[in-house]
C-alpha cells in the first residue's frame, strides 16, 4: 500500500507524462503542416512513447493498491516559430520532466517507499536518454538554422525512426 503523499505525487507525474504526449502530438501536427513529414513522424513516435510512460505509472499505482486520479490536461501550444523552436522547447520540456521525476524520487526516499524508488529508477535512466537526444537535436537544428537543404537532411534522418520504436533504456522487468 502506498502513502497518500506518494499516490498524489505519482498521479501528478502521470499527468506530466500525458501532457508530454499532448505537447509532442501538437509539435508533430505543426511539423506536418510545415511539410516536414520526417519530423512529424519522429514527434508522433515520441508522443506515443510518452503515453507508455504514463501507463507505467498508472500500473504501478494500481499494483501498489493506490487510487488513480486523472487530472485536467492543459492544451499545449498549437503554433511554433520554426522547427528549431520545436526542438528547443522539447529539450526544455524534458529538463522540466527530469526535475519533476527527481522530486518524486526524493519523496519516495523520504517516505521509505522502496517499491517506488526501484520503480522510478527506470525513469531516472530514461530521462538521461531523453535529455541527451533532445539536447543533441536542439543543437543540430541550431547548427542548421535557416539552411533549407540542412533542414531537409534532418527531416530525412528523423523519418528513419520506426513508428512503434521505444527509445528507452532496457526495462529490467
Ligand atoms: Mg516521459
Task: Considering the chains and any ligands shown, give keywords for the structure.
173 residues; mainly alpha; Ferritin
CATH fold name: Ferritin
Largest sheet: none
Q: Ranges with pLDDT <50 over ≥5 residues?
A: none
Hetero groups in this structure are: magnesium ion
Q: Radius of gyration in whole Å, from Cα?
A: 17 Å
Helix/sheet category: mainly alpha
Can you tell me the CATH superfamily?
Ferritin, core subunit, four-helix bundle
Write down the secondary-structure element order. Answer: HHHHH
- CATH class, named Mainly Alpha
Give the total of domains.
1
**Separation of termini?**
20 Å
Strand content: under 5%
Number of strands: 0
Total helical elements: 5
The average pLDDT is 94
CATH architecture: Up-down Bundle
Summarize this, please?
The chain has 5 helices and no strands. It has 173 residues and is mainly alpha-helical.
How would you characterize this protein structure?
The chain has 173 residues and is mostly helical. It has a single domain (4-72, 79-158), classed as Ferritin (Up-down Bundle), CATH 1.20.1260.10. 73% of the residues lie in helices and 0% in strands. It has 5 helices and no strands. Helix 1 (4-33) runs antiparallel to helix 2 (37-63). The protein starts with a helix and ends in a 15-residue tail after the last helix. It binds magnesium ion. Magnesium ion (MG) binds next to helix 1 and helix 2.
